[in-house]
Amino acid sequence: MASATRSPLHSWTTVLPAVALVALAATWGRTLPPVLVVVVALVLAGVVLAAVHHAEVVAHRVGEPFGSLVLAVAVTVIEVALIVTLMVSGGPETASLARDTVFAAVMITCNGIVGLSLLLGALRYGLAVFNAEGSGAALATVTTVATLSLVLPTFTTSRPGPQFSPAQLAFAAVASLVLYAAFVLTQTVRHRDFFLPVPTPGTVDSPEEHADPPTGRATAASLLLLLIALVGVVGLAKVESPAIEAGVAAVGFPPSFVGVVIALLVLLPETLAAGRAALRNRLQISLNLAFGSAVASIGLTIPAIAIASIWLEGPLLLGLGSTQMVLLAVTVVVAALTVVPGRATRLQGVVHLVLLAGFLFLAVSP
């Protein structure tokens, strides 16, 4: 009976990634009429849900924190590829694209995903409990790579404007890779227990967590479908970007807000996965997704951009403006105060979400 109930869902999550690829191939580089824009948006929403499902299948097989690491890295690698592709083909106007995209990802993960997860967990269980050691180490890594890659270019003097010299960019790229590698090693090998969910009374497990782990073949299929779904998410988000851009212009928002909308779409799978984990009282999984995505976003993007800058024309603007640095500094301080106790109330969740709202508002009204 259970298998009969689950079969349609599995069939749906298997078909949607393929449908997304077909839709992507049929619409890439074309101007879409309003009806097709709506259809593509519906396919995009469906493939996001499919990506979350397959990420949870993989996570159930490999266990934590490997499951959240798979989703974070997969999303980030595809996001990096999209950034580099747009910068190569976009010309001088994309000089700040990497900075704007990475900063938006950091604010969305460290405030949006963290805040939503804490709020959902605290509303359902009264208190959100997690490992302060693992979350604190992840936050320290995010702070360091963000400062080295996004803050220092504003203050260096080797080049005019908020940009690195070639030697400085090479150092930032190597430092980002070293920090990311050290973080992954710590998370998955040396101190894996710091990143595992804290067992607490009242935890509600999903039926999948009590079921036997999926077979190796099923896991491999879900991993492949996850990657296909993520390609579909990023690609269809790019296809939708002209319609989003037109909508942003129609309501009078600055063009840079389009990048924020795209970042929100790309990070939807991780946001949904983190929210579902929080509702099962698995806050550590939610924080792994949030901080792990922030570390991966910077740690993989900056080296990729450094390599791409060899053939990219024009300046590469990485340094944040004063308003962005203030938001980053407040985010780091608030996040530190949140993770140090190892538990949080709904107040901390609301604080992080208000910070995200502040970022979005200032992106609309600089």
TrEMBL record:
Keywords: Membrane, Transmembrane, Transmembrane helix. The keyword Transmembrane applies. The keyword Transmembrane helix applies. GO terms for molecular function: potassium:proton antiporter activity; sodium:proton antiporter activity. Pfam families: Na_Ca_ex. The chain crosses the membrane at residues 12-29, 35-54, 66-90, 102-123, 135-155, 167-186, 218-237, 243-268, 289-312, 318-340, 347-364. InterPro entries: Alkaline_pH_Ca-Antiporter, NaCa_Exmemb. One of its GO terms (cellular component) is plasma membrane. Its main location: membrane. This is Ca2+:H+ antiporter.
